[in-house]
Amino acid sequence: MNPRQRAALALTLAAALGLSACGGPKPAPGSGSRAPADAFEPVKAGWGDDSRGGNVNVLMSADFQTLDPGNSNYVQTANVGQLYYRTLTMAKEEAGKPPKIVPDLATDLGKVSKDGLTWTYTLKKGLKYEDGTPITSHDVKYGVERTYARDVYTQAPQELNAALSDDGYKGPYKGGDFKGIETPDDRTLVFKLKQPFAEFPALVSRSNTAPVPEKKDTKLDYTNHPVSTGPYKIAHYDRGRSMKLVRNKQWDPATDPNRTALPDTFTFSLSTAQATISQQLLADSDPTAVTLDSAGGLQASDAAELDRPEVAKRTASGLTGCTDILNFNTETIRDPQVRKALALAVDRKAIHLQYGGARFGKMAQSYINPDQRGYAKQHSVLDPAGQPKLDEAKKLLKGRSYPKKLIYGYADATARFKNMGTSLQQNFAELGIELELRPIPAANYFTTLAGKNMPDLARSGWCGGADSGSVRTTIDPNIGPSIDGKTFGFSNIPRYHDPEISKAMYELRDANGTSEELGRRWSGLLDRAMQDYPLVPLVRNVTRSVVGSAVRNAQVGYFFGAIDLSTVSVARRSR
């Protein structure tokens, strides 16, 4: 998913595409065209320049949660990861549309058996790591095996694992034979599934299938220098401060039509205040700069600057598949009616304005949206305009036992997340509830939410639709059960687990049917779960990201919610 730091990546990608969040991309705004403040059509910036060379400077307010492809559920890692790792298939972005699944390390999207229980992939010839060592099928299998070591990799993607026959496998560090994948030779992988999974080609686009050479696996330290299989490699990484990517000379473009790899280098500034990022981009003080921060790093107070023609022509924008929500910790706020009262008290309109209003997002009534495949109507008592319903909230709380003090945790690098907490303080004070605002270091934010220190309330987001838009890509990871169905799932931040609904979700994972049919069933279960109010939908994001005047081929990824690093380049000279 965000991250723009997201709680997790959108999961279980799909190969069959055809849905679009909006119309086709508008012309690049180099001629002065620009999107109106309330328009959501995608706009590309500086498109069509194939200049090779130069450096792209990526300004970020916080470090990556991780760079280890086997321990990442974050869209920021997936975005930069395109530059240094490859997977069997790839979710290739196009502004305004869910990504398309295409072959990457594999020669095709896979061959499925008649019974649907095995998928076979063949690696392309000539694939090498940054040190010149050949990439083998065994390395891809090992990359998947690592993600079963949940005691080591707490944020490892699990959707592929849930689909494979694993016989209780616990990862390579505890021994045992993993039977979910066979490697009959150095270029062939055979995946064995528990049940047919028609969208399996999308599952193997997840970072699980990034090859990892076993001899260079340093476990948690692997994040400091994952061995490159992509067009760039890590030359320098100072955690929390800076990183530099340089060309990987062992990468063969003949095997990779998906990445343009036009810049010579990417540099990352990993501790720049968002207000500074906003000012630098608007002023064009660094013509080679972009950002991956949410909302393009722009502050709400700077939004009017987007109307200036000089800025407008440097702005890439688009409605994304990313939705922000407010999570209630269902282990500390146990009563669904209390959670409903809190949800009714939230002034979502005020929060929307803190996000920048219509220019930066649409009010969301659900975690899923009609653009996702399998969507079915969701029922909500929340005001569509975002106005709080304090009288109804007070009636729900009357005569009930509920906490008089709650804690809201927020990522400390983003001002609007703190401002959201201030708004919530005012809302809950009307109910006689004191809300403490607790800053959490942005680099550790989602690790904290996944651990024992999860606060009572916390904002997160999810970038759904990194495929044909299946609603399962949002529902299952965010409120679904664990792999064994016994508790809440690993990226289920509200810790929601209802005996009946969660059991139905667990069984639905192995159900047969078309994606549309199964999606409607997932939608129905989400609708039921939302009557327990584990979360409050807030804003479906629109990203408007200003880039430096020398940056070309900038587009906002529908899935990434930020500038897609795999397409950008630098002009030979500013124009």
Automatic annotation (TrEMBL):
Under what name is this protein listed? ABC transporter substrate-binding protein
The signal sequence is 1-23
The processes (GO biological process) annotated in the record are: peptide transport
| Keyword tags | Signal
GO molecular function annotations of the record: peptide transmembrane transporter activity
InterPro entries per the record? Peptide/Ni-bd, SBP_5, SBP_5_dom
Recorded superkingdom = Bacteria
Organism in which the protein naturally occurs: Streptomyces triticagri
Q: Name one Pfam family in it.
A: SBP_bac_5
Tell me a GO cellular component.
ATP-binding cassette (ABC) transporter complex
CDD domains tied to this protein: PBP2_clavulanate_OppA2 (cd08506)
Report the residue ranges that make up the Solute-binding protein family domain in this protein: 100-467
